Amino acid sequence: MSNRTDQELKSRTLLGTPGAGGRAVGRPVVINTERKVVKPEKIDAERVDDEVELVENALDELVDEFEGLKSINSEEDIVDVMETQIQLLRDPELKKSIDGKIRSQKFKAVFAIFSSFNEYIQLLENSRVNWLRDRTIDIVSIRDQLIDTVRNKEPDYVKAENGVIFAEELSPTEMIKLSRFNLAGVVTQKGGLTSHVVILAQSLGIPCVIGVNWKQMRPEEFETVMIDGDVGSVLFDPTDELIDDVETYKEEKLKKQEVALQWASEPDVTECGCSFTIRGNVEFISELPRIKTHGARGVGLLRTETILFEKGGFDIQTQIDFYRQVAEATAEDPLTIRLFDAGGDKLPENHEEEHNPFLGWRGIRMLLDKPDLLRKQYEAILRVSAEYKGKIQILVPMISHMQQIEQAQLILEDVKKELRQSGVEFDPDIPFGIMIEVPGIAMMAAEAAEEVDFFSIGTNDLTQYMLAVDRGNSKISNLYQPSHPSIWRIMELVANAAHKAGIPVSVCGEMASNPLYAACFLGLGINDLSMTTNSIPAVKEMLCSHTLAEFKEKSNQVLRARTFTDVNLIFNEWKKTLELHHI
Amino acid sequence: MRKKKVTVLNEAGLHARPSSTLVKTASGFKSDLQIEMYGYRVNGKSILGLMTLAAEQGSEMVLIVDGPDEDEAIEALTTLFENKFKRE
User: Fold this and answer.
1) Cα separation of B22 and B50, whole Å?
2) A63, A76, A80, A83: best mutation site toward chain B, by most B Cβ within 10 Å?
3) Complex-level ipTM
4) CB 3.0-4.6 Å disulfide test: which of A29, A376, B2, B20 passes with B74?
5) Per-residue pLDDT tens over the stretch A94-106
6) Does the distance separating the beta carbons of B17 and A80 come in below 8 Å?
7) What is the pLDDT of residue A1?
């Protein structure tokens, strides 16, 4: 390749932070751009029914979303606002007007919505009454959300299929919506390494690069774009050779995966015969088939926030259906259900803002303030436990104080009592465990171990709280280092406390999906690991093909290290000596 | 069909919360509800329609209820106006 082309390639390359690994080529698809004015486009007569249906689906979807938001708030004002939004969406006259514009005037759904809303907005803006003029802000916002929802569903939007998404930022809801398309990649301007977008991209195997200033490139003007989630680069109009490279890379990766997948069916023992357990972290129904194919012994962490985002999933039946579906997929293996961990970056949009959400009202803190929500979730889990006695466990997130353990248990006992009185069956011995993710409770592990049935260490949050680094803040995200020696030392402390009290301890954070870290956890005496299902084969290969003595040696070195660079050095040296297929 | 003249008694007029309560109550009945004010008529089950009335305290309006449960409906709606839309 000549220098000149090299130069040209460079000018079409953008760099960012690697979010989720893998390389792919696709069409650039820009979403989430500024609010547009909707043009009065017309449709053919045969599209009429489809457009009307688009509107109906969008209305249902938004109503579900608002119902969900309504149910996590008990403040009367917020509930009132949500109810009014829902009434707006269910307004019979508005619906009539939209339908009329589509059916008689043959306007596209988005324009029919735009102009129907605008007629009301104009009337209200001209009103003499102050509060009415204020209301128009809400109505404009509803209008725009509805238009967005319809646009997501327009056949046009299926262009996202096999495309590389460019967005400023994706909310969990948006990422959830997009994940239904077969995306080639995701590029965002904002977002941190452990944001929802990244976790989701990793679990779905979609290459993702974050922190990219892509706007000045005008991605929509290019036909193809290549994304490399391993190094964090985005290249517009790649040469044919580069595209071929990606194809070869993909084939090789597939082959490697096949080799690694062969490990999935191997017994869970190290080369020296010590047994360990690997489970899957699951958030989406679409991940369930991989539990079997990737060799997971059940689900070590079921995230339940998504049912909150997807469909106003707070009612008991929706939860029961979801838990049951997961329990079915794990067969005789255990299923650990983590209570709603809404908060921080996982909050649905429109929620009250907090100055410091990661140090704020989330996990058990929120649930103890919303006992109705907590009781509903307990009830749903208990009801499902009747059918799967001895395999379902409850995991409580964000415990920082000993009293929270007692409070959460009291409510659980109360729900049990109620169910017993109404003759509902459940597993009376359902294990009750806590997440160890706040240093304050980690330091109290010995005492906490006396009160609960198991520990699960959440390494993402533990790292961010140990090092006081907001993982979403790109200015300091380089300080977010899971290899910081303090993380390993506190994990050892927690593991020792658990062993002394004779309760199980597991790791369910991102760290466990790194084969070398996972090996060191075994060295620390933590032999129960839960991770995104895609990572399981590689981790298993590492664990099955080496001895515990080797893992102990490495973890001892790590525990003695002074800096995270020392720790990284230990791992890099180790990596060189290994012949693994997947690393 | 039943008709009934009512007056908006609450101080702030038929603002967001009362409108919302009114729609909710009206939607609980099978009968249609039309509301007439200064010769202007809106669907009483439409929150946007009610808003455009911009009814302030003291406004008079006519409720027109038509359908199988019109008697119960007009009863419930009148009570709502009389109670200044307070929730029970």
Assistant:
1) 9
2) A83
3) 0.92
4) B2
5) 999 999 999 999 9
6) yes
7) 44
